[in-house]
TrEMBL record:
Species assigned in the record: Paenibacillus solani
Domain of life: Bacteria
ABC transporter domain: residues covered: 5-237
SMART domains: AAA
Name used for this protein in its record: ABC transporter
Amino acid sequence: MKLIYQLEDVNKTYKKGKVVANQNISFDVQQGEILGLLGPNGAGKSTLIKQMVGHLAPTSGTVCYKGTSVQTQTKRVAQEVAYYSQEPHALTSLKTWEALYFTGRLRGLTKEYAVKQTEELLERFGMQDLRHKLLKNVSGGQKRLIGIGTCLIGFSPVMILDEPTNELDPKKRRLVWDLIQERNRQGVTIILVTHNVLEAEQVVDRVAVVNHGKLLAIDHVSVLKQRVDQRMKLEITTSLGESDYVCQSLSALGHWTQTGENRIRALIEKQNASYAIDVLTNQHLPIEEYSLVPPNLEDVYFHIDDEQDRPAKAEVV
Ligand SMILES: Nc1ncnc2c1ncn2[C@@H]1O[C@H](COP(=O)(O)OP(=O)(O)OP(=O)(O)O)[C@@H](O)[C@H]1O
C-alpha cells in the first residue's frame, strides 16, 4: 500500500508559541483510504490539515506528501490535493456554473469535459436553475455544495475536506457522503474533518481522534469500537432540573456526561446492565425515559476523550 501522507512529530503554535494548536502528531495516510479526523471545537484539526495542504508550515516536525516535504512542493500538492476549507471560498463573485467550470479547466480538463462535469454536478446538487446566480447570492448550504463540487471536479487523486456536511440538510448531507464514497471507490484518497460522527461512521475506514492538539487515537472504526465492546450506553431523560440529582444517585454506575438540558449518558459495563435496570425501575428516581443500547462511534469518541481527561478514575460499580 502506497503512503500518501506521512506526518512526523508535527507541532504547530500560534502567537509566538502562546497558542499550542498541534503537539507531536505522527500518523500516515494510505492511498485509497478515507480517514476521518474527529475532535471538539478548537482541537487542532483545521490547523493540521492546513499543514497537509501547505497553507501553514509546521513549527517543528515534518509533513510529507508522497515522500517529500509539503513545504518544498506546495505547487504539486495544490495540483494534486483538492482542499475544501471551512472559510468561504474566493470564488463568490462567480456564477455557480463558472465556479465549477473554471476550477475544472484549471485542473486541466478540456472545455467539453469541464462542461460535462459541471452539468453533472449541478444536476446532482439540484442546482441547475441556479446556474446563473452569483455564488454570493445563493444560500449557505448551496455555497457549500458548490465548494464540494470544486473539489470533485477534475478528479484530483486526493481530497481534503474540512467539515463537508456542515450547514447541509439531511438529504444533501446524504448526497455529499454518497459523492465522497463514489470518489473513494474510484481510488481517491480522502481525509475529512467532521462533527457528524454518526454519519461518518458509515463512510470512513479509519478515524483519528484529536483533542487539545494531540492525537489521542488512530485506527479502524471496528478496532476503536473494541475499546467499548464490553460496555453499553445508558441514556436517560430526567425530569426538568433533576439531572444533577440523577447523576449523583447513579454515580456508582459510571461517568455521566450531560448531553442536553435533561439528558445524561454513561457507558456502563455490560455485566452491570441488569443491575442498572433494577436501580432505574425500583429507586423512584425522577426519570422520564431511558435507553440501553450498544455504543456507536460517537460514544467511542467521547470515551477516548474522557479517558484522556480522567486517566486514573475507575468506571466500574
Ligand atoms: N490563526 C490563528 N491564530 C491564533 N490561534 C489560532 C489560529 N487558528 C487557530 N488558532 C487556535 O488554535 C487552536 C486549534 O484551532 P483549530 O482551528 O485548528 O481547531 P479545530 O479543531 O479545527 O476547531 P473547529 O472544530 O472549531 O473548527 C485553537 O485554540 C484556536 O483558537
